[in-house]
Design brief:
Elements (H helix, E strand, L loop, with lengths): L1 E7 L2 E9 L6 E4 L5 E5 L5 H10 L1 H14 L14 E4 L2 E9 L4 E5 L2 E6 L5 H27 L1 H4 L7 E5 L6 E4 L4 E5 L7 H13 L8 H10 L3 H14 L2
Helix pairs in contact: 3-5, 5-7
């Protein structure tokens, strides 16, 4: 592996170059904003540097996307009555109550945490997070069912959903496994934002990069995607 850099306007773009037995030059911006290039040993370095320079606008656009999608550090929760939790775009106040059975319910602006030991912070955190993850499974799959018909007629196979905690993006597409990975934190976003992220990843099964074709297709299927993305990246991230 080699490290190189090019200058584009006032930006220095550093990248990793991996020499592999590939036909084309491949460029990838990872969620941690590392830029990776792979090329055959026969491709001259000058040609690769020119290639990266030509792709600089696309690289900076993707880096900007990943930066915007990075959630801020969450304020440490104490899991006591009165604390605020975001769920599906709305703020809920936590109400902790002693009970014989550990469970979570929500209604009328409150999340009720029933717990055997109200002084056990780790236990309370585990119960709430388990509840939120369960809600994420239900809501993410419901959103997939709603959005998938938009791309079904274009030959996109319905994928499986995996939920993970991710720091650098809201979702990702695993083409070879017919799977999309969604950020656990998305459960804090409004449903229409979740639908945008899922559609975004579904379109990646057809278009791998965020090029003009990708954007045009997304705009046709969801004309207000920019508004949804803005709410997600500004309002939701700020509340994490």
């Amino acid at each position: 592996m080699e490290r190189h850099a090019i200058k584009y306007k006032d930006k220095i773009i550093e990248f990793e170059l991996h020499r592999k037995n590939v036909k084309n030059i491949n460029l990838n911006v990872k969620p941690n904003m590392t830029i990776m290039v792979s090329a055959n040993d026969k491709v001259p370095l000058e040609y690769i540097l020119d290639f990266v320079t030509n792709k600089a606008p696309w690289i900076l656009k993707n880096i900007s996307y990943f930066k915007e999608a990075q959630p801020e550090n969450e304020v440490q929760k104490e899991y006591v009555s009165g604390e605020s939790f975001k769920y599906l775009g709305k703020q809920y106040r936590l109400q902790v109550e002693a009970a014989e059975k550990d469970e979570v319910k929500y209604k009328r602006g409150y999340i009720y945490l029933f717990v055997k030991d109200s002084s056990n912070k780790k236990r309370k955190a585990k119960i709430v997070k388990r509840w939120l993850r369960g809600k994420a499974v239900l809501n993410f799959n419901a959103s997939l069912e709603k959005v998938y018909p938009l791309v079904e007629k274009y030959g996109v196979k319905k994928p499986n959903i995996i939920i993970r905690s991710m720091k650098a993006r809201w979702g990702s597409c695993l083409k070879d496994k017919d799977t999309i990975i969604l950020n656990y934190e998305l459960i804090k976003a409004p449903k229409y934002c979740i639908e945008y992220v899922i559609l975004h990843e579904l379109i990646h099964f057809k278009y791998g990069n965020h090029d003009d074709q990708f954007i045009s297709f997304l705009t046709v299927l969801m004309p207000d995607w920019k508004e949804r993305k803005s709410i997600l990246d500004q309002e939701v991230v700020r509340g994490l």
